[in-house]
Amino acid sequence: MPLPKRCVEPVHVSRGTVPERLQLPSELEAVTNGTLANTVRQLSSLSKHAEDMFGELTREATNLAERTNVLQARIDRLAIKVTQLDSGVEEVSLQDIQMRKAFRSSRTFQQQLFSRNSMPSAMLDTYAKCDRPPPLEKLNEFRDDGRDARKFYTDPDYFFELWRREMLQDTERIQHDRGKKVRQPRSNSGADGRGTRRVLALHST
């Protein structure tokens, strides 16, 4: 079930505005004042979410601008190197032509993109309000297979384990296909690829 990222609170502005144990001279006036107060709270919650949204957009735009600047600097350095190359001036020996160096990339790959640290603040607040899973780990001492009882209820590593099993199966299948030798059936024809000739019997006339 998907969780809402941002929820404006309070949802019901007129509910619970009249105290149960207090005698009020006018319930209608109490409901009106309570509704007005909850409406102000809704506006406050809405402004908080708007500030969070613009802050998130600012961080994303700043990150994109930094990556663009790094890419532009790499393009400028490459353009300078290309203009400095001149095959007519520089002499390359035959030994240098045959020399091959192993390519090593200095690019770093981003990992843990969907971790707790990279979660937006609004989603982190919503996640913190969720109910905690039941304490099923107390049943581990009664299990004989050694598995964690909580993983039958919730398992954060389920999709990673599923992906890992699929990758291992694909690797084993590729290795198995490489190990098989394709056997072609031998034909009954001669060595030169032509069939056997039939000798025709001569009939006397």
From TrEMBL:
<protein>
    <recommendedName>
        <fullName>WASP family protein member</fullName>
    </recommendedName>
</protein>
<keyword id="KW-0597">Phosphoprotein</keyword>
<dbReference type="GO" id="GO:0034237">
    <property type="term" value="F:protein kinase A regulatory subunit binding"/>
</dbReference>
<comment type="similarity">
    <text>Belongs to the SCAR/WAVE family.</text>
</comment>
<dbReference type="GO" id="GO:0030036">
    <property type="term" value="P:actin cytoskeleton organization"/>
</dbReference>
<dbReference type="GO" id="GO:0031209">
    <property type="term" value="C:SCAR complex"/>
</dbReference>
<keyword id="KW-0206">Cytoskeleton</keyword>
<dbReference type="GO" id="GO:0003779">
    <property type="term" value="F:actin binding"/>
</dbReference>
<dbReference type="GO" id="GO:2000601">
    <property type="term" value="P:positive regulation of Arp2/3 complex-mediated actin nucleation"/>
</dbReference>
<dbReference type="InterPro" id="IPR028288">
    <property type="entry name" value="SCAR/WAVE_fam"/>
</dbReference>
<feature type="region of interest" description="Disordered">
    <location>
        <begin position="174"/>
        <end position="205"/>
    </location>
</feature>
<keyword id="KW-0009">Actin-binding</keyword>
<dbReference type="GO" id="GO:0005856">
    <property type="term" value="C:cytoskeleton"/>
</dbReference>
<dbReference type="GO" id="GO:0071933">
    <property type="term" value="F:Arp2/3 complex binding"/>
</dbReference>
<keyword id="KW-0963">Cytoplasm</keyword>
